[in-house]
Amino acid sequence: MSDSPEQRNDEVQVPLTADDAPADREALPLRSDVRNDRWPASIKFIIAQEGCERFGYYGLKAVLLTYFTKYLMFSDEPAVTAVHAFIFGAYATAVIGAVIADGFLGKFRTILYLSLVYCAGCIMLAVTAIPGVMPGSPPHWWGAAVSLVLIALGTGGIKSSVSAFVGDQFLAGQEHLLATVFALFYWIINIGSLMSTILTPILRTISFALAFGVPAALLLVATAVFFFGRDRFRKVPPGENVFKLTFQVIASAFRGWRRRKTTGASIADEKAPASFFDYAKAEVNHESVEDVKSAFRVMVIYLPLPLFWALFDQHSTRWVLQAEEMDRNIFGWFTLLPELVQVLNPAILIWLIWIFDRLLYPLLARFGIILRPLKRMAIGMVFTALSFVVSGLVQVYIEKNPPKSVSIFLIIPQFFILCCGEIMVSITGLEFSYTQAPTSMKAILMSGWLSTVAVGNLVVTLVAQFKFGDKAMEFFFFAALMALFTAIFVLIIQYYVYREDLKKTDGLSTGDGEAAGSESTGSSPVSDKTSLLASGMEEADM
User: Fold this and answer.
1) Phi/psi zone of residue 173: left (φ > 0), alpha (ψ -120 to 50 degrees), beta?
2) Rounded Cα distance, 372 and 168, in Å
């Protein structure tokens, strides 16, 4: 994917003349001769920024569990709870960033300003990790708590805008490039993750202050790269407050529903099948109502997804603790730090992304096996459940043998299976959340997608309070929960109508559940990217 074409400098999306540029630079008129097979030049700035930012985030996350257990002296369960609470905050705050971006500042300024908050939190975390800075022995945890709150606000606030900002750089006629650029986007994320997950655990053997200081420095670089690319970006101006609009539609629909209940009056639009939101059309313009309806159709798909993230994010907590119980001697050369098992995730993903996108999906298509996005997600959820069955079996084997006698290599299969699940759920979900969002609600739906990560980590913190005692049983419990929610997901998607299918059928609404746009109809996989932005409802990393 690194050899994908990039738009040349002479084809940069710039104002026709200096006089054509608006003063606020939020809506630059674009040249009409942009080549459809070239990526916008602005993409390189976003990808460079995202690579540095992800290096910083995954770097501090890689050693966070160890920081709690080895430096602040938390026991295992409180440390696991603290890490997942941080991840919960990092994704729950995505909705704040979405509101700011869509209703007030626009995506560019939101990303820039919250990146500064992000940097402040990382610098504070590094400083408070310097021995002697915080009082007490072990050092008091409040410095880490305040730092992580700032980091969560910063990283969460920009999450819902970055992916949508990538999509904003493409014009009509360039839709076929979007899925590939999202795949590259995700690949770069994992390059940053891989490098930082290797480096920061090594740095923490010197000091935690250094381990946190390097990610802080990279975040400063990321913010600078993004700032210096400001003149190349296509900036879509913020619209009306979409949360206010959504609540207005819901309130109007409720009033219309009550009126019909009491007076028997018909809804405003008799052409479309009746739905709750159609009652709002008597007071709110039809386009806004349809946008909210589209958003809620996607939100229904999101409902079972938190369980995927509840399992996935444990690869950086419980699977690290599992690695501590294993023989980590590598061929007699060195002893692997337990945090370094997390490297398996990005290392495997870097190659699997290419294999899935360029080999597996096209090969299946040649044999007539077309996996639309929601089907890919369902299969990915099955892989995720299976990875925890494997981790449970490995844990049983560990407990039946002498301490630290089971080879660390036995942990590889569960990571490989989890990575297969991540590709089919997370990458497709990133693409799905953008392509299925109405124009006015792209960042909101992206924040909804990211909120599933938050809820999943909240589930882990709640389950941790039950104190299973038996680690293998806890892995099997999560696998069973994942299987249950996969079944629920499969039931839900049977009634889902893709946005492109809605457009093909005049007047068709998803409420009727007809087969014209249901999940069972054929469509092309990742390699068929010809109508992503306009055509819509495909499957939903982050």
Assistant:
1) left
2) 24
